[in-house]
Amino acid sequence: MSAATTAGRRLVRAGALAAALGAWQLLTAYDVNLWLRFEQFPTVGEVASALADRVGTAAYWQDLGHSLRRIVTGFLLAAVLGVAAGTAIARSRWAADLLGPLVEVVRPVPAIALVPVAILLLPTNEQGIVFITCAAAFFPILVSTRHAVRALSPVWEEAVLTLGGGRARVLWSVVLPGALPGVFGGLSVGIGVAWICVISAEMISGEYGVGYRTWQDYTVVDYPGVFVGMATIGALGLLTSTVVELTGRRVTSWLPHATAGAPTGRPAPPASPTPPASVPPTASPAPSDAAAPASAPRETPASGQDPAPEKEPVA
Q1: What is the per-residue pLDDT across 124-162, written as a single tens digit (0 to 9) for each?
Q2: Taking the CB of residue 55, how many other CB atoms lie within 10 A of it?
Q3: What is the radius of gyration, based on Cα positions, of the chain?
Q4: Alpha-carbon distance values, 10 to 1, 15, 234, 244, 309 (Å)
Q5: pTM of this structure
């Protein structure tokens, strides 16, 4: 992709964000009330002023650090456990029979509904929030890994086994590298779900964090502060998802990528070669049975088979 194209795309993205902020400012400044009520919404200027005040305080950065520590710890645990469990379920019948039903029963339960379980099982609120974050990201990663491993072609595994490789060699040289694109797809989904649940858990049982501070602002009817928390959550989510995506691109850099200017990711088929002029023409095909001389011997059918019917002469 050329530098001009990259700069143009960045300009379009910045313009879309600026247009959204401009529409927000106009709707709130003029107190538009067309089914959607904007008269109680804070303006962009009020939110920006509140953000500038919060950034200069130590409490803002303390909340930021608590939320980042919880999300990183829970997400890394979910990534390790999800990839391991997904690979085991896809590769082992015993793991599929033992873990598969349990996973399918627990997976539909929202992670935020596990707050009572975390309170009963874990001694501190901090550990409970990490547990909920891990549970939220675990299932998307597990499901994506399971499907990615099952979708691998068996030809690669057979090639390694033919060359004398064992099961460990197949796992580390074929299964995990081949499933990486699907694994990182699950990681991208998991980091978004993890942010949703860590903020919700901080609102319910947290003492510090962006979610806790946002809920406190809501209880005291500080709506600019609420929007500061929402903007902070969005920025943190964008940062972490970008890190996961860039890591996935770096780890899977060996995969073929679409070339610049190509309409699709599938390469164009090679053109059929043109025979050189010096090649002599091929021999004419053998004459058909209808043009064969009458004296040519007919093939005798095998025993127990009816003779083939004679072809009608061509007029």
Answers
A1: 888 999 999 999 999 999 999 999 999 988 888 888 888
A2: 12
A3: 32
A4: 13, 8, 19, 20, 74
A5: 0.75
